[in-house]
Structure formats: C-alpha cells, structure tokens
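Ticket #4471: structure output looks truncated?

Reporter: J.K.
Steps to reproduce: submitted the chain below (105 residues) through the standard prediction queue, then opened the result file.
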Amino acid sequence: WGKKMGSEPPLEFSDVYHVVRGSLNPGRVRIQPDKVTFKSSRTGKIDQFSGPELDEVHWMRSAKGYEMKLVLTNGNSFRLQGFKEPDGDRLSSKVGKWFDKKGRT
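Returned output as attached by the reporter:
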C-alpha cells in the first residue's frame, strides 16, 4: 500500500467486503489509474486487476449498502460490497477516466 509520488491520488475504501459464493470477506480496496487492488483483512491475501483485465464495471444496490462488480475479460467477476451511495459518483468518474469504462447500474 505504498504511495507513488507524482501520480493522481488513488481512491481508497476500507470496510468493504469481497463477496465469494455468498460469504463476505472484509478488507479494503484501492483503485489507481492502472489497477484495482483488494486486500483481505482476514487473510492478508491481495487480489489485483490491471486496467486491460477489466471488461465492465457495474454499480448496484446490495445487502451491505452498494456493490461494485468488476467483470473481467476472462469472464470471471469480482464483487465488492459495503460502499455508500455518494461513493458511486467518485467511482464512476475515476473508473471512466482511468480505465475507459462507464459504470453501469
């Protein structure tokens, strides 16, 4: 989680959950101009996706607030819950700018 100097500041969210087969795994997510990184607070495992791996980004209401669903080019998806409604505007503008993807609802 080191910081790069001279680049646009990343978006960081703590208290989010990676959804795996219905279970919620707590952690934090960092969205940077070239990648999305999730670090599990339970296991310490890091999942990272580069911009070219992202095919679609969806924003929707969920049981834990709001959810960002990343659809990858290989057909897999990566779901993150626990966002708040105002986070959607920040995420949409940055994701659109950094990854040339529009957030879909």
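Triage note (M.O.): checked the attachment and the full token line is present. The beta strands are 11-20, 23-32, 35-40, 46-50, 54-62, 65-72, 77-83, 103-104.
Status: closed, working as intended.
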